[in-house]
Amino acid sequence: MCIRLRPTSMARVVAVCGMPGSGKGEFANVLFENNIPVLSMGDMVRAEVTRLELKETPGIFGEIAAQLRVEHGEDVLAVRLADAVDTHLESHSIVLIEGMRGTAERVVFEQRWGEKFSSLAVVASPDTRFTRIQNRGRSEDGDRQAFETRDTRERGWGLEEIIAESDFLIDNNVNLEMFRSSCFTWLKSFTNQE
Questions:
Q1: Among 52, 99, 101, 111, which is 20 to 30 Å from 15 by CA?
Q2: The 3-state secondary structure of 14-45, one letter per residue
């Protein structure tokens, strides 16, 4: 099922956040299926790993993300992504940023788009998230220790704070069908607010 977005005079930017394995990517899939452009912050890190010709291991993506933040500032990915978001806003009423992970990124987005910006958190228990990570088979995923290390690193960027302060929250301690239904219901409600 696909919803038809009404034309609006105020295009909106939504950034989805959540701990690793919470369901950010699946939320992004639902919006993409409804003709909403999705720009992934994680894809930017994956592209950097490829550019540097590094071997894809569970720790490398986090190391590169941390290195980028040290070398260029905590907001580096947000700053690099913002112009691409503006380009999509010229022809779409909503643009989704998938994978906001820190307070510095949120500040960039709030300053850039003001009242046009909203954040949404997807939450799930650690055990649920770890099981999903084990099942998805991405190169950046590893064992339980790698999972906990990643959680700790992302908390250090302010992820828990931006989850707690999000404008919207979707619980993903449910099966995939129920979660996708919740995402679609949220999208329908969000577009009707415009």
A1: 52
A2: EEEECCCCCCHHHHHHHHHHCCCCEEEHHHHH
